[in-house]
Amino acid sequence: MMLFLLVIWSAVAAVCAAVAKSKGRSPEAWFALGFLFSLVALFVLACLPSLAAPVRIQSYCIHCGAALTQVGNFCSWCGQPVSGNHLPQ
Ligand SMILES: [Zn+2]
């Protein structure tokens, strides 16, 4: 029974570490917190905002003005060809 609880406890700590990594936080620290506080730490981590960098707008379409998050040959909104960076003036 004790071994079963230890396995569950470690699994929760591992999930904490994985969630922390996906949110741009320290997986080692959150593994320790998950091991100490179990589901409480997981709940707190779930409520915390992500530190990972948000999607950056790289340019705007010169035809429709839509924000383009990646440089491509065609605008994903209007289908017009786009070239280079067209940052707003
Ligand atoms: Zn466009």
Features:
mainly alpha, 2 domains, two-stranded antiparallel sheet, 2 strands, binds zinc ion
Walk me through what this model shows.
- With 89 residues, this protein is mostly helical.
- The protein folds into 2 domains: 2-47, no CATH class; 55-89, no CATH class.
- The protein is 46% helix and 4% strand.
- The chain contains 3 helices and 2 strands.
- The protein has helices at 2-22, 27-37, 39-47, and strands at 59-60, 67-68.
- It has a two-stranded antiparallel ribbon with strand order 1-2.
- Helix 2 crosses helix 3.
- The longest helix has 21 residues, at 2-22.
- It is rod-shaped.
- The mean pLDDT is 84.
- Bound molecules: zinc ion.
- Zinc ion is lined by residues 61, 63-64, 66, 75, 77-78, 80.
Q: For the terminal residues, how far apart are their CA atoms? A: 66 Å
List the ions, cofactors and other small molecules found in this model: zinc ion
The figure for the number of domains is 2
**Low-confidence runs of at least 5 consecutive residues:** none
User: What is the element string, with H for helices and E for strands?
Assistant: HHHEE
- The main sheet orders its strands as 1-2
**Cα-atom Rg, whole angstroms?**
21 Å
Percentage of residues in strands: under 5%
Structural class: mainly alpha
Mean pLDDT: 84
Helix content: 40-55%
Number of DSSP strands?
2
Largest sheet: 2 strands, antiparallel
Structural shape: rod-shaped
Tally of individual helices = 3
